[in-house]
Design brief:
By secondary structure, the protein is mostly beta strands. About 5% of the residues lie in helices and about 40% in strands.
């Protein structure tokens, strides 16, 4: 099996997020999940008022973003330039939506960072997670953040087990990762750059970059070229 990617600089290209300066300071990106609120509030104070409008205390929305009247956005939150927040979207906890992102119909975001041009367009749930540049969730795909038995979440990389000490921890998706329709990404999962998870798959653990995941255990390594704009 190919190289397992777990570190911040392996999962994400530099830039592509207002939070990059904070993320780039930690070797493991999940370490920042508990402090997303502080990060978002700090970034919000630096935003150019000519580009971002402060809609409520702790909520900044780019003037170029399109937000449906039926969307609900709770503080703290930043909605990036040219983002689309569509009908029935629910944003809460502490959320940073990057430039050009699509948050779609009945999608719920909770305590997460979406890098630029991420798409979560149809009936998705993303909790306590980071989605890298141009990552995409198919319709109904879920980033699960709590184990069924409520125990603390660990990250399993082969024989290595990292105890996170957290009861809530979703997934880290590297740049260009694709998760198919109605797939479930289990708590503490890390998916490498350009990896594709097939529809209806249930995945967990650490998945290498440039992989096809057809079931939870059936992983095929390929070489993918990111789609152009």
């Amino acid at each position: 099996m190919g190289k397992i990617q777990m570190k911040t600089l392996e999962l994400f290209e530099p830039g592509h997020s207002l939070a990059w300066s904070q993320l780039s300071t930690v070797e493991s990106p999940w370490l920042l999940i508990p402090v997303f609120k502080e990060i978002i509030l700090a970034i919000g104070q630096t935003l150019d008022p000519a580009i971002y409008q402060k809609h409520a205390e702790g909520v900044w929305i780019a003037r170029s973003a399109v937000v449906a009247p039926s969307a609900a956005i709770g503080a703290p939150a930043i909605i990036g330039e040219n983002a689309q927040i569509r009908h029935g979207a629910y944003i809460r906890g502490a959320v940073l939506v990057g430039e050009g992102c699509v948050v779609g119909n009945s999608t719920e975001l909770k305590n997460c960072i979406l890098f630029d041009k991420v798409q979560v367009p149809h009936f998705n749930y993303v909790g306590d997670a980071i989605l890298g540049y141009k990552a995409h969730l198919g319709a109904g795909a879920v980033i699960s953040n709590v184990k069924g038995d409520g125990t603390l979440i660990s990250i399993k990389n082969g024989d290595e087990v990292i105890e996170t000490g957290r009861r809530k921890l979703g997934a880290i998706l590297g740049d260009y990762a694709e998760v198919g329709c109605n797939a479930v990404v289990n708590p503490g999962t890390i998916i490498g750059q350009r990896t594709v998870v097939y529809p209806t798959a249930c995945v967990r653990g650490v998945i290498p970059s440039d992989s096809l995941v057809k079931t939870g255990k059936d992983i095929e390594l390929v070489q993918r070229v990111p789609k152009e704009d």
